[in-house]
Design brief:
The complex is a heterodimer of chains A (246) and B (273). With 246 residues, chain A is of the alpha/beta class. Chain A is built from nine helices and nine strands. Chain A is 32% helix and 24% strand. Chain A starts with 5 loop residues before the first strand and ends in a 21-residue tail after the last helix. Chain B is an all-alpha fold and 273 residues long. Helices cover 83% and strands 0% of the residues of chain B. The chains are: A alpha/beta (246), B mainly alpha (273). Chains A and B meet through β5 of A and α6, α7 and α10 of B.
Chain lengths: 246, 273
């Protein structure tokens, strides 16, 4: 690995799709063990930026440098047609040869080991998101790109999944690029925040981004200032299927 | 034994069914049914050119199909017309060019029915060798690129992000498809090849629940269609291609039965009957 554990860097990168630039002038870095988040309104170029980092889209200007090939991706949207018969276990092996034990271990981490033999088409939105994350973790990647990984997951599940994401970054020492709408998580748990709106509005540590004028303008004074972490008392925990486990 | 025209047809047909099984699954997973059809239509142009310049038919058809596939990719970059419009444009214009050229070659007698619907009488030992050797190569390549191709079929972005190079493998897949069409023209005919690609795979989907199973069962259904189809063709003196496809259709209808039964069973459970 290169100096400073740098995994990937974008330099002044942009994507042009006639008749306009979807995103322009993006520079960012992801290092091992670091969580970098992209935030911004709809259409601000978060997914486009993530796709540049993954080399799915080639930048029309600027450059991408990557220092690892062990990459896992959780896309924002996946549609799998009924025509394709696919069990969770087949999906887990999509780009990697994994043993059954490795698969079960990963599914266990995201709380869906019971779905091992289920058809992908039968899963609920939240279950599918958990399987997507499990698949990405199972690869033991050095760089993990997560595009809104908790969409459709219930409230407690969301907290679970964010905890898992924090743990992966710590345990596997992998770098994470996260696209998220959850400002609570972004501000409390990530190392570097990039705020996009067709270009980089502001970026830096969460504590400095919160105070940035561009950020406050983009997210509104009210929302950006009331970032107290909402915690409620819960005297029991839920398994992923909703049953009360203690 | 291979002297008998019927045995020859059977051996060649089974070879084709083994190749169309896995490729057919990929065709329906990737929603490429009309793409296969377009390649098959353009095959008539390939055959005409083969006669005109006395080339090997399979080779000429393969080259034309490959050219059409590349043309399609090129057109898609140049215009915003939808994929099916472009496919229709290519399919019918190449078919028309093929037929017009055929008019110029009045000295050669074409067996049009044979080209369109296949002719078991025409299968030679060389054809058998071509199908089995060609099939072996196609399946060999498919085996090696399966993981990349399959992951790109499930989700292009994911495959691309995780280093599966879907671009290259999609291109190779297109060439393999052109290859299988070239190999099966004589048996099935240009109009019906897509049927042998799609129907066994579709029937297989109804009764399987994972990709590997679907491919294997598609091969089996293909072999059954060819075997029963050829016997029927012999008995009833019908063209071989249509007979094979009709049998495949009957097998497809049968494959719907377990699906229906399972549906009824589940409904029963839900309402506690």
């Amino acid at each position: 690995m290169s100096k400073d554990n740098l995994l990937v860097s974008l330099e002044n990168a942009g994507i042009y799709k006639s008749p306009k630039w979807l995103i322009r002038g993006v520079s960012l870095e992801v290092k091992s063990g670091q969580i970098v988040t992209l935030i911004g309104p709809n259409g601000s170029g978060k997914t486009t930026t993530a796709k540049m980092v993954l080399n799915i889209l080639e930048p029309d200007e600027g450059s991408l440098k990557r220092y690892t090939n062990k990459i896992a991706y959780v896309p924002q949207k996946i549609n799998i047609d009924w025509t394709m018969p696919l069990r969770v276990v087949d999906f887990m092996r999509l780009t990697n040869n994994l043993s059954n034990n490795e698969i079960i271990e990963s599914l266990n981490q995201t709380g869906v080991e019971k779905l091992f033999k289920e058809q992908i088409h039968g899963l609920s939105g939240g279950e599918f998101q958990r399987v997507l994350l499990a698949r990405a973790i199972a690869k033991k990647p050095e760089l993990l790109v997560l595009d809104e990984p908790v969409q459709g997951v219930d409230f407690n599940g969301e907290i679970d999944l964010y905890n898992i994401i924090k743990n992966i970054s710590a345990n596997l020492n992998c770098g994470i690029l996260l696209v998220s709408h959850d400002l609570h998580f972004v501000m409390s748990a990530t190392d570097h925040v990039v705020c996009l709106n067709g270009h980089i509005c502001c970026s830096g540590k969460p504590s400095s981004v919160i105070k940035d004028k561009a950020y406050i303008e983009l997210f509104g004074e009210h929302r950006s200032k009331t970032l107290t972490y909402y915690q409620h008392d819960h005297d029991h925990t839920h398994a992923s299927d909703g049953s009360v486990s203690s | 034994m291979l002297d008998d025209f019927f045995t020859r047809a059977l051996v060649a047909g089974i070879g084709i069914a083994i190749i169309t099984g896995p490729l057919g699954c990929l065709v329906i997973w990737r929603r490429l049914s009309y793409f296969g059809d377009t390649l098959a239509h353009s095959a008539l142009l390939g055959v005409t050119l083969a006669y005109a310049f006395s080339l090997n038919i399979a080779f000429s058809v393969f080259v034309i199909s490959a050219v059409i596939a590349l043309l399609l990719l090129n057109l898609q970059k140049r215009t915003r017309l939808a994929g099916d419009s472009l496919l229709g444009l290519l399919a019918h214009s190449t078919l028309a060019i093929g037929l017009v050229l055929m008019g110029f070659l009045s000295s050669i007698r074409f067996d049009i029915m044979g080209l369109l619907f296949g002719d078991i009488l025409a299968v030679t030992l060389q054809d058998i060798a071509l199908v089995w050797i060609g099939g072996f190569i196609i399946l060999g390549i498919l085996y090696f690129i399966w993981k990349s191709l399959f992951s790109a079929t499930v989700n292009y972005d994911l495959a691309s992000a995780e280093g599966m190079k879907p671009n290259i493998y999609n291109m190779i897949f297109t060439l393999l498809l052109a290859g299988v069409i070239a190999l099966s023209i004589k048996m099935i005919g240009t109009l019906l090849i897509t049927g042998l690609l799609i129907i066994p795979a579709a029937a297989s989907r109804n009764i399987t629940n994972n990709p590997k199973q679907m491919v294997l069962v598609a091969i089996l259904i293909g072999i059954l269609s060819v075997t029963i189809g050829l016997f029927t063709s012999l008995e009833l003196n019908t063209s071989s291609g249509p007979s094979i496809i009709v049998i495949a259709l009957i097998l497809f209808i049968i494959s719907l039965i377990p699906l229906e039964l399972r549906g009824k069973l589940q409904k029963g459970k839900q309402f506690g009957n």
